[in-house]
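User: Hi! I'm working on a homework problem where we have to compare a predicted structure to a textbook description. Could you give me the structure for the chain below?
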Amino acid sequence: MHIQGMNWGMVEDLLTREDRCVLPLGCTEQHATLSLATDTLLAERVAREAADGSGVPVFPALPYGITPTFAAYPGTLSLRVGTYLNLLDDLLSGLHAQGFRRILIVNGHGGNTPGQGWLGEWLARHPDARVQWHNWWNAPRTWAAVQRMDPLASHASWMENFPWTRLDGVAAPEERKPMVDVAALRQLPPAKVREVLGDGNYGGLHRRPDREMQLIWQEAVAETRALLDSGWA
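Assistant: Happy to help. Predicted structure tokens:
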């Protein structure tokens, strides 16, 4: 149940029997040859597929996140940490005010994790609520599936290259890039980050066969669905 396919009356009726919902979090940032909306596309899609048939509504993904490191790549837009936390506060508080008490956050962008640390403050103000923060791509089962396939997996590499994140007419390079020194990269300003990274892939192949990617995707959807069904304290 995607919110864009519902009206307010349908949500009001739903709330008489369901207090769960899903809020995907994405980002708009460089992903080498992939869509700038990769994190948003993946977070919303895994959320929708995980909730399919459950009767739990999935809200549209928040398409902007915290990504100052990639500011030198055109098309990347970053929110300040304070702005982002205020946005999360407004969204979660709005959901709570309407009657949602169990909220699954499906996060698609590592830079958004300051929100995970802040979440305890919100829960302290809303003791009747339960919120799960799920970084879908590196959750235990999904990350294990990635590592079994190819341990050299990273930002903008093959592990984010799905049919729905590719761009028509854009070919992926064949090279297997060595892994960048992430700790050193975090010390650099945006222009130097772009100089070091080049196309934006942190390391590894840019693409693997779709049959392999489908196995990882199935694990990600199943792991997310398990949290939605039975991950509540």
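For your comparison, note the following. The chain has eight helices and three strands. Residues 210-230 form the longest helix (21 residues). Good luck with the assignment!
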